[in-house]
Amino acid sequence: MITLLIKATRQSKDKLFCRLQSNMSEELLQRVRDLEGEVGRLKAQLREKVKEGTGGEMAVSTNSDGKKDTSKPDAGGRKKGKRGSRDRPFDFSAHPRRHVALRLAYLGWAYQGFAVQENTDSTVEARLFEALLKTRLIQDRQSSNYHRCGRTDKGVSAFSQVMSIDLRSTQFCGGLGVTLPSNVDADVKNEVDVAELPYVKMLNRVLPQDIRILDWSPAPQGFSARFDCQSRTYRYYFPRGALDVTLMAEAAKRYEGTHDFRNLCKMDVGNGVLQFQRTILSATVQPVHKTPPPAPTTADPYDLYIFEIKGLAFLYHQVRCIMAVLLLIGQKLEPPEIVDQLLDVKTNPRKPQYSMAVDFPLVLFDCHFEGLSWRREAEEVEHALATLQHHWTQTAVKTQVIHGMIQGLDSTGGTSSPHCWLMEGTKQRTYRPLLERPRCESLESRIEHFVKRGRLEREEGENGGETVHKGKRPKHSHHTSISSVLPDVSPSF
Amino acid sequence: MITLLIKATRQSKDKLFCRLQSNMSEELLQRVRDLEGEVGRLKAQLREKVKEGTGGEMAVSTNSDGKKDTSKPDAGGRKKGKRGSRDRPFDFSAHPRRHVALRLAYLGWAYQGFAVQENTDSTVEARLFEALLKTRLIQDRQSSNYHRCGRTDKGVSAFSQVMSIDLRSTQFCGGLGVTLPSNVDADVKNEVDVAELPYVKMLNRVLPQDIRILDWSPAPQGFSARFDCQSRTYRYYFPRGALDVTLMAEAAKRYEGTHDFRNLCKMDVGNGVLQFQRTILSATVQPVHKTPPPAPTTADPYDLYIFEIKGLAFLYHQVRCIMAVLLLIGQKLEPPEIVDQLLDVKTNPRKPQYSMAVDFPLVLFDCHFEGLSWRREAEEVEHALATLQHHWTQTAVKTQVIHGMIQGLDSTGGTSSPHCWLMEGTKQRTYRPLLERPRCESLESRIEHFVKRGRLEREEGENGGETVHKGKRPKHSHHTSISSVLPDVSPSF
């Protein structure tokens, strides 16, 4: 990434804004990222200009200031189709729409998270919508029927993020998920099958290199990436260090099943998350390299392991909190039973204060759906693979350079604690057991806080129990008790 | 490094300069690096303020604008000694001087090279001299009797770079390499042995995290890191990909011995390098992990290898050119015999055009000297180790995240060519054998070029042969023939 960084800034000649505020450093970094993204997009476009075009579809480039540039003239002199200049507004209503699912992968280290934010456009979603608008696949976000499966935080990557959305289509003859334009009669315009738009290629051409669409699938009209997800799988990579990985694997199993995870997440009561029961289908700790493990005395602290956890839906920061506790268990600072104690919300209704694990090793690895048929374009996969290999080469080689130096210094048998760097914040000199630490606010207390401010309302239920729901009480209110409020299934970390 | 980057820019509140020139992108990146270094220095200082001091020695911090800040008061209230404010110039002549060797390690990826440059202060040497001046270990560079063993290029790292220099000393009683102040009589001031200044700790406190002094050694007065080096060893790390590493190992041996390497370097005639004979003591290709190699069909393309080369002195870019040719041999684009052909300067007096290997995998791993006794401070080594482990954790984890995605995509058995990313420039579609390519200028032609411009002079020798030497002919000229001009033993790449 550093090499990409150097290349981007050297080639850009955009204006550098001048600020003397204290937040300038955030904008400085964002500026560098913007430039990096812009170079990636321009390179992608240049590559396509050298190869064959895609039957008239042109990507309109946008420089970092948001101004549109018309694309370079095609060397072959073929008919170009719409140039997408401001003078000719695109008539979306003349085209069919198609409800689709898109599967994407991204490296999250250069972004401020997946979801769009007010104070920065350095988010994965922002780049996605830039690309969707540039390619005229959607008219605007609001009318695009967009749902996302998960929402990853700053620094978190994804190998299988899924979104559902309505895109422009060529399928005047109809098809799965296709809606014809209102002025078109399905019988009259009985066209020969034309190929659908090459969604994956069109988007990848204009997306930054570290965000890739892997495949797409037609989807029935009611399909939602958010609500129809069958399971979500996360991976957290970590070095063995001096950790007892066997103990960690044993402790991980204790998370499996349906439990109240309020002590293992960041409670998001303000956003209406009032119920913390979640189901973990599996939680394992495995070495990356599947060779038979050596005896513990010869174990290499620089071996890498994966904590893999699969569930229906996850709470905010749940995986990182779960991981933090596993790391404490691995260091033998807590016994494996601490997991059961933290899941016992009757005995422990309030979360002990502890830091979650850092962001960069976390990957949303899989989102599973039934009933979709993913259409992969081999050329696009090859290209994504090449980009990943390029990136891998840089990081893997640098990793070895550093490791060579560590080995050179380590001959005196110094302490090897690479796992220490996975906890947020500074390390305390004396370890304080979790259950002896100060506790965070309880759920009831947080609810009370928001009820007082009118953001949540309490009311008497039919059976005498109390219920809580968001916002002002509507006319025809739908009563739900605290214990059965549906989880907000927009899992995020 | 990216995480370090983010932390540095967030914490700095220094002024952001405003330029609209086309070279602003270089300065932008440099600015980010400066900030990163500044944070590292400040953190190092803060750490030392918490721990014990060093008996009155204070490091004076300098912010990125070059202004001096006085250090924070010591919490223990101990006597501080000189504060180093501008009002009290330091009297170097009152102190002994000591000729020493310093061994250092650095990660070169964030720097523009080792040697000081005019257009940037983002070099390792610039940081070293900042540190030496801040700690008042030297008065200025010019009077410090400074020699360096090697000069690494932009992006190249070092685990054993050695320099020799005169530093301030406490040794009024004399010692190896010590020169007493002129006004001091060695007999009169026969002080009890005091400890020498803790050079390693003092410098590491104020150096950026990615530059570390490992140890120091007293040195006899005539010792020079540049001229007294017995051998230099470089390592180049690379992934196996689809390379035939056995063939590469066999080809590497052909470089051993004394040869004319003009076709395997970048000729630097303008700087007086006129002779290209060098001696390679060993050249090997080994896997990083010493497990028994699996059969070639099950070889993992993501295994890492080291090309290690040991020689007396090296020419400019010699190792990277050697590596480039080895990579071509490993891809079976050239036979191993090409090495012998390139070393045969009678048959091939002019270098074929080819790109050298990229910079980031290269490490100056060892510089060997006789007669020095390295003094290592355990605490400093622990600290350097911790810093390297922190760095390793980030790169190793990111490497696995990417590798996990590659494995996920690669199930269709796509082509795995991570080694391709090690050559500079773009890959040609059709391979052109080296000996069929256009050739670079010959040595004689280059000499002629500089002779015409007065930077080199030819003259008739005693035995009728021609000689060449740098610059204008001095009054009492020293005749040397072309074939015996001493190599410029300032090895660089």
UniProtKB/TrEMBL annotation, chains A, B:
Residue span of region Disordered: 50-92, 455-493
Which cellular component terms (GO) are annotated to the entry? cytoplasm; nucleus
What are the record keywords, sorted? Answer: Isomerase, tRNA processing
Q: Could you tell me the superkingdom of the organism this chain comes from?
A: Eukaryota
Q: Where in the sequence does UniProt note compositional bias of the Basic residues kind? A: 470-479
Residue ranges annotated for the Pseudouridine synthase I TruA alpha/beta domain, each copy included: 251-370
Q: What molecular functions are annotated in GO for this chain?
A: pseudouridine synthase activity; RNA binding
The processes (GO biological process) annotated in the record are: mRNA pseudouridine synthesis; tRNA pseudouridine synthesis
Compositionally biased spans, kind Basic and acidic residues:
65-77
Q: Where is the signal peptide?
A: none
Family, as annotated: Belongs to the tRNA pseudouridine synthase TruA family.
Q: What's the protein here called?
A: Pseudouridine synthase I TruA alpha/beta domain-containing protein
Q: Which organism is it from?
A: Oncorhynchus tshawytscha (Chinook salmon)
Instruction: Give the classification, highest ranks.
Output: Eukaryota, Metazoa, Chordata, Craniata, Vertebrata
- Source gene? PUS3
